[in-house]
Amino acid sequence: MDLPPFAVTWDYRCPFARNAHEHLVVGLLDGADWDVTFTPFSLSQSHVPEGGEPVWGNPTAHPDLLALEAGVVVRKAFPDRFLEVHQALFSARHDDGDDLRERKVVRDVLEGAGVPADEVFNEIATGWPLDEVREAHERAVADHEVFGVPTFIVGDRAVFVRLMTRPAGDAALARRTIERVVGLLVEAPELNEFKYTKISN
């Protein structure tokens, strides 16, 4: 199935973002011809009360953004390693229960994927990764009223999606799942909400 270019928001803290992005990663590694933009989005910022200090200007909140910033750096400076690092950061948080606010945890993920951690942290220290996270987050909110992750975006349409399952390495399943989500977004704009009343076993 041919898909239009699309974007998907992420924050490593969200288990539903982990599920969706794992489908994306498995499908892409299998050769899926998707033009997808991985868009950072800060759940910490989305929970700041109206009138509160934005996380971008609050140094005490910056550890919450560390993994996002690392992902942004790897996406730009080490694009051939991005998918591996992206999935590994989700796994560190949700499979291993590690705290991604700790530099050692992020360092171990980076080095495990063959990415020089010191170079990534040096880039974070310059400030541009934080600016990029902020700009992507604010643009998603302003343009599409995005409130969480994962949000799939095609053109001027955006939809928040909760996928309950992981692909477990099944590339065909990953492809079908992503193509179904993006296909509905493109082909069924009249479908505003489709939610089960209970979660099946």
Would you give an account of this structure?
The protein contains 8 helices and 4 strands. It has 201 residues and is of the alpha+beta class.
What key phrases describe this protein's structure?
alpha+beta, 201 residues, four-stranded mixed sheet, 4 strands, 8 helices
Layout of SSEs?
Elements: E1 6-10, H1 15-29, E2 36-40, H2 43-46, H3 66-77, H4 82-94, H5 103-112, H6 117-126, H7 128-144, E3 151-154, E4 157-160, H8 171-187
Parallel strand pairs: 1-2
Antiparallel strand pairs: 1-3, 3-4
Helix pairs in contact: 1-4, 1-8, 3-4, 3-6, 3-7, 4-5
Treating each run of at least 4 consecutive H or I residues as one helix, how many helices?
8
**Cα end-to-end separation:** 30 Å
Shape verdict:
globular
Radius of gyration of CA atoms, rounded to a whole number: 17 Å
Low-confidence stretches: none
The main sheet comes to: 4 strands, mixed
Q: Strand content of the residues, in percent? A: 5-15%
**String of helices and strands:** EHEHHHHHHEEH
Q: Reading side by side through the largest sheet, how are the strands ordered?
A: 2-1-3-4
Helix proportion range: 40-55%
The whole-number mean of residue pLDDT values reads 97
SS-based class:
alpha+beta
Q: Care to count the β-strands?
A: 4
Q: What can be said about this structure in brief?
A:
This protein is of the alpha+beta class.
